[in-house]
Automatic annotation (TrEMBL):
NCBIfam families: purC. It catalyses: 5-amino-1-(5-phospho-D-ribosyl)imidazole-4-carboxylate + L-aspartate + ATP = (2S)-2-[5-amino-1-(5-phospho-beta-D-ribosyl)imidazole-4-carboxamido]succinate + ADP + phosphate + 2 H(+). CDD domains: SAICAR_synt_PurC. Its EC number is 6.3.2.6. Residues 7-235 form the SAICAR synthetase/ADE2 N-terminal domain. Belongs to the SAICAR synthetase family. Pfam families: SAICAR_synt (PF01259). Pathway: Purine metabolism; IMP biosynthesis via de novo pathway; 5-amino-1-(5-phospho-D-ribosyl)imidazole-4-carboxamide from 5-amino-1-(5-phospho-D-ribosyl)imidazole-4-carboxylate: step 1/2. This is Phosphoribosylaminoimidazole-succinocarboxamide synthase. Keywords: ATP-binding, Ligase, Nucleotide-binding, Purine biosynthesis.
Length: 254
């Protein structure tokens, strides 16, 4: 029996119509996929952790004035968000070479980049989310040049903030992906952050040991994904030292 209307079911999340017009409920599943869904598993507890971590990060971003879709968390797996018109781009910001950048350009994983590098990928699963340039984005009308400029400045602000947030708890932000969307305030269009920011969408390495605390643990079979995500949550002060649900503050890593 459907409680509410399903809007979209993706690989990691489900969107339902929200209680008020212009809102959705974002439900975080335990499903994990990689390599354009060729690799698939169900990882007990992943959705709960990502819901909580994304809440924490989006709330912090709101605190420094970075507009985003998060309204409030509803329960362990769901959050209320502002519905927006998703711009069909995955926006990747890189600080350190890893993943596809290392592969394509032959740069060793772990090499610090001379400056943050932003890449755009066209969101289309059938095409495997191909990389595109600003020329493609404007020519095919996915976004205007002004939108791209706004997206870049938003992405760089998020990068600076998140780099500091994670460094403070002994984690290096190697790269991350965000999605953006449009909302309208009367006649004015604004671009806001949407989707999620979690260890599914970031590369996070322990500063001291280089241990991976992100989805690469799943992609490369490096151990328990929930252990890695729990560690991120614990360091951010979302989980107490020993287990779940407490209110311990962030722990300084020396
Ligand atoms: N605020 C929002 N308003 C509208 N759509 C949103 C919002 N936030 C996220 N979405 C969309 O909801 C979907 C979330 O589902 P999920 O991340 O599981 O999709 P996916 O399988 O990864 O596919 P996709 O390639 O579309 O991201 C995505 O398509 C995302 O673009
Ligand atoms: Mg997605």
């Amino acid at each position: 029996m459907a409680r509410r209307r399903l809007v979209y079911e993706g690989k990691a999340k489900i969107l339902y119509e929200g209680p008020e017009p212009g809102t959705y409920v974002q439900y975080f599943k335990d499903d994990a996929t990689a390599f354009n869904a060729e690799k698939f598993d169900v990882i007990d507890g992943k959705g709960v952790l990502n819901n909580r971590i994304s809440e924490h990060i989006m709330t912090a971003l709101t605190g420094i004035g970075i507009p985003n879709h998060f309204i409030r968390r509803i329960n362990m797996r769901e959050q209320l968000i502002r519905a927006c018109e998703i711009i069909p781009l995955e926006v990747v910001v890189r600080n350190v070479a890893a993943g596809s950048l290392s592969k394509r350009l032959g740069i060793d994983e772990g090499t610090a980049l001379p400056r943050p590098i932003i890449e755009f990928y066209y969101k289309d699963d059938k095409l495997g989310d191909p990389m595109v340039t600003e020329e493609h984005i404007v020519a095919f009308n996915w976004a205007a040049q002004q939108d791209i400029d706004d997206i870049i400045s938003l992405a760089l602000r998020v990068n600076d903030f998140l780099s500091g947030l994670f460094l403070g708890v002994g984690i290096k932000l190697v790269d991350f992906k965000v999605e953006t969307g449009r909302i309208w305030d009367g006649d004015f269009q604004r671009i806001i952050l949407a989707d999620e920011i979690s260890p599914d969408s970031c590369r996070l390495w322990d500063v001291k040991t280089g241990q991976k605390l992100d989805k690469d643990v799943f992609r490369r079979d490096l151990g328990s994904l929930t252990d890695a995500y729990s560690e991120v949550a614990r360091r951010l002060g979302i989980l107490p030292e020993g287990g779940k649900g407490g209110k311990a503050g962030p722990k300084l890593v020396h």
